[in-house]
Amino acid sequence: MSGKAKTAIVPTRSDDYPEWYQQVIKAADLAEVSPVRGCMVIKPWGWSIWENMQAVLDGMFKATGHENAYFPLFIPMSFLQKEAEHVEGFAKECAVVTHHRLEPVPDGKLMPAAPLDEPYIVRPTSETIIGAMYAKWVESYRDLPILINQWANVVRWEMRTRLFLRTAEFLWQEGHTAHATEAEAWEETRRMLDVYADFAENWMAMPVIRGEKTAGERFPGAVSTLSIEAMMQDRKALQAGTSHFLGQNFSRAQQIKFQDQNGQEAFAWTTSWGVSTRLVGALIMSHSDDDGLVLPPKLAPKHVVLLPIYRNDTDRANVLAYCDSLKRDLEAIPYANGRLRVQIDDRDIRGGEKAWHHVKRGVPLRAEIGPKDIAQDAVFLCRRDTGTKASTPRAPFIATVSQTLDEIQANLFQRALKLRQDNTVTIDSLADFQAYFTPKNEERPEIHGGFALCHFSDDPAVDRLLKDMKVTIRCIPLEGDKEPGRCVISGQPSSQRAVFAKAY
RNA sequence: CGGGGUGUAGCUCAGCCUGGCUAGAGCGCUUGCUUUGGGAGCAAGAAGUCGCAGGUUCAAAUCCUGUCACCCCGACCA
Q1: What is the ipTM of this complex?
Q2: What mean pLDDT is reported for chain A?
């Protein structure tokens, strides 16, 4: 056939980045849009990645003293109304359940029959329902802290959706904690941000900037919102996790109060923090290339795929036997938080097609094994991240495979870090700022911009200009210098720089 | 919710303006043969109430009315 297909994914990243993203998901068989508007079906390969993320994060939460629990999907509407800013932030995107029970009507259809006295909303987040329970559970300072996480689905009725990045229903974890003191709650907020940063960098191989959101970008009802921000390959920012210091706002609204050691009544200090299936989208956009998905080994559903190659039944039996024994040896090797995950793909399809299948799905290592390899007691080993291929004798392959995976993991991180470093600039003039964020081709914007470190001010005129340019203040970095300057847009005095970027 | 667009085979689409044979193509799928160390070739085959409901007509994928769904662009967002 054409045979000249240079890339497995069409279009390429530079041709049309958003379309490339969709095609990678399709080629890797991660997920599909469903018949339900705005909701996705996560398919086994995509789900497996999420499961791996969950397992690691869950371990981290438990290692920091948290326990899992589960709260209802439905929240009485009145609960949401208790915190004014919270209502304002979420009301527009809530799905509302107004009835129970369906009854047949004459034309053979079904109609909701019994209206609810008080409508339920489908949780967009659970501060209110969890807070209502905490109010019952907390009486004394001895009941604090409460450190609970839940793994759940939530619904936010978004206008426009994109697989993994923004869907009407998504999966996440939400941690909700209550503390006796402000300092302790702040410490918790910071601790969980660090957990997220650790996970992003050391498991997803995705460098992140930890920072604080400006007032406009804050979680509705929070005193302060911290986030980790990552740069995707199109140089747009993606918020990958958030940790909120809620102060006493929610505990006041929900009467989470206790008697302190002096017998005084006090409101608890609360936090909440979460990451979602959006992380899968972040993973895709951080590492994948024009041949499809590229997975960091520590989160890959399979680390090594063995591809048997044979022409006749005799070869077939020998090659499969060799693969079986190699698989057993490999699966005994410890890696990351478990053991090596190995697959033999013995489907009866052509070798080339089979190899591409696994390239597109992002399996870190591919070993092709045929009679010639077996004769030399070797495998033909291919690395997904670099595309390098080499005949590798079995013993050294087994001895170094976990090290090779570590190298791939490190390479992906370094590659992503370099992309961010190469596309992070310091800007001090409005003209430079506008030039930086303006594409050369307004009709079909090419990949442009990046992270701009600029002084800023809280001013309506600044907000307006940023909105026009579709640029947002991602965060005020926690680390980095704090020297004062003047807002790049308004010229007003500013105490430190923030990260500006176009964002998902 | 504003502006634009599209519904025809599993997928991508042609056909519609100018109504008329058994509604087409590519990809995919099934079967057979030949192939097989980097996305195979040839041949045969299965597969569509043309989004839905009315209407006009001898005759509707095609014209008219209504309706539903989805997509793109904006406003909103993890």
Answers
A1: 0.86
A2: 92
